[in-house]
Every structure is written in structure tokens, then in C-alpha cells.
Amino acid sequence: MPDLQLVFMPAHRNASGFPIPLGHGYGILNVLLHPKSRGSVRLASADPRSAPLIDPKFFADERDFEPLLAGIALSRRLFASKAFTRMEAWEIVPGPDAITPDELRAAIRQTAVTVHHPVGTCAMGRGKGAVVDPQLSVHGLHGLRVIDASVMPNVVRGNTAAAVMMIAEKASDLVRHAQDRQSTP
Questions:
Q1: Residues in domain Glucose-methanol-choline oxidoreductase C-terminal (predicted)?
Q2: Is 117 a catalytic residue?
């Protein structure tokens, strides 16, 4: 199973704490597909207008660095290939001076983002911490279902869109069957 996705971009990416590149550019975004670290989402207050407290807890499990370090090495090899060297590119993040594992880990920590695929905040299951049951109904509430990536107990090894479509398709069947049972005399 893959641990890393390389996203090629025909543009620069602004990274926190690094100089904003000027002119044309390209890049590779190394995406950790199955992090071992688990974050949290909590209510800030009883006021529903209050933003939640989100802590992604990036790299709480140090093993999450290994695939990303391998991704940096692979990205550097790709950019050193003849196909890329003719474009006279230069490395911005983590930067050519970042060589040691500690330097690379520091750059990874500084630039890590969620890449739009968070899951698990309303995990499906029967155990402690599960929010919805296998029918996607919220435990303890009648008539409320959660139908999105938040019900996945763990992130899939890839983009979440296909899995969310499957969840939605299954949910439509569940809702339709529930309505059929209610309308049957």
C-alpha cells in the first residue's frame, strides 16, 4: 500500500516561513497518505457560532516523518534528472541547504498542511469515541445522520472523494429503505 502521493504542480507553492518565489515555476507536493498521528476537534464553547478547537497533532507519531523524508529524496532525484535540469530550476522548500534528517524534519514541521482530506471527526463504529453507527445515524439521536468523510474511522490511502461518493450512495439506500419502511402500512 502506498504511503505517499506526489502531486506535481505547474506553479510555485507558498510555504510558511520560506521566501515567496517569483516568476514561473513548478513543484512537487509530498502528501502523507496514511498518517499514524491522530488529531482532535473539540467544541470551544456551548455557543454554536464559536469556531471549534482543531488540533491536527501533526507528527505526534514520529513514524510519519519516514515516508515524507523518502518523498523529499525522491523529489530531489526527479528534479536532478535531465528532464528537469534543462529547466534550470532551484529548490525553495526545504531548500538545498537542508540535508540532515533533523533539518528536513524541521522544514516538514514548518510546512505541513492537511491537503483538504481530513477524516474521522464523527467516526463510524460501536466502540468508545464512535459518533455514528453503521447506518450513519448519530448515536443517541433519532433522525440525524452524518454523510461525509468525517464518518471514516481512518483516512483512505488516497484522495477521499471516491470513498465519500460511496458513503453517499450507501446513505441514499439507507434513507430510501427507512422511508419505505415508514410508508408501508
A1: 35-168
A2: yes
What value does the mean pLDDT take over residues 100-111?
A: 95
Residue 132 DSSP symbol: B
- pLDDT tens-digit series, residues 46-59: 999 999 999 999 99
Q: What are the distances in angstroms from CA 77 to CA 9, 28, 45, 71, 179?
A: 17, 12, 49, 10, 57
DSSP state of 39: -
Q: What are phi and psi of 5, to 5 degrees?
A: -120, 130
Among 117, 139, 142, 177, the active-site one is 117
**pLDDT at residue 20 tops 80:** no
| The model's pTM | 0.82
Q: Is 73 helix (H, G, I), strand (E, B) or coil?
A: helix
Give dist(CA 62, CA 57) in Å, integer: 11
The burial class, CB within 10 Å (0-12 / 13-18 / 19+), for 98 is: middle
Does residue 148 register a pLDDT over 70? yes
Cα 185 to Cα 180: distance, rounded to the nearest angstrom: 10
φ and ψ at residue 169, rounded to 5 degrees: -65, -45
Residues, the chain, total?
A: 185
